Amino acid sequence: MKEWNVYLSGEIHTDWREQIMAGCKERGLNIHFTSAVTDHDASDAAGDVLGAESNSFWRDHKSAKVNAIRIRNLIEQCDIAVIRFGDKYKQWNAAFDAGQCAALGKSYITLHADDIVHPLKEVDAAAMAWATSAEQVVEILSYVVSR
To answer: CA-to-CA distance for 16 and 47, rounded, in angstroms?
Structure first.
């Protein structure tokens, strides 16, 4: 049976990743999960090895590029991505990941509340599904990988 590779992208302030992974494990689904670095401080400091910056723009710029090495490769390798948009912060990085998935022809599922449907209409339009809960994502993944 094929092992599916699912990339989890998006907000890092709730346990949605753990909920999806636990739900898939409970069902015995053959899925390998990957993600960007979810430790906010570590992600922000990813480029610090390249030298200190007095301007925060250049620190963020270098760290974004170092993080992109990981993210770009994991998205290219995934079979499916789950892109989570939370309600507390704007996840521009998640929107960018969704755009990369769309450009690469990767199937992705968006996960967000219905009160942000309008600002995400283009992102959702390219998605294969829109879910409002981790449980719905588990149901979709179960259907896709078990048939």
So the answer is: 27
**Angle at CA of residue 81, ends 80 and 87, nearest 5°:** 150
Alpha helical stretches, state H, 1-91: 16-26, 40-44, 56-77
Q: How far apart are CA 89 and CA 22, in angstroms?
A: 25
**What's the full length of the chain, in residues?**
147
Q: Retrieve residue 86's tokens.
A: 């939370």
Segment 38-90, tens digit of pLDDT: 999 999 999 999 999 999 999 999 999 999 999 999 999 999 999 999 987 77
Q: What is the CATH number of domain 4-146?
A: 3.40.50.450
Domain ranges of the chain: 4-146
Q: Tokens in use for 25? A: 């494990």
Hey, is 73 helix, strand or coil? helix
Backbone CA torsion sign across 115, 119, 121, 127: negative
d(CA 41, CA 38): 9
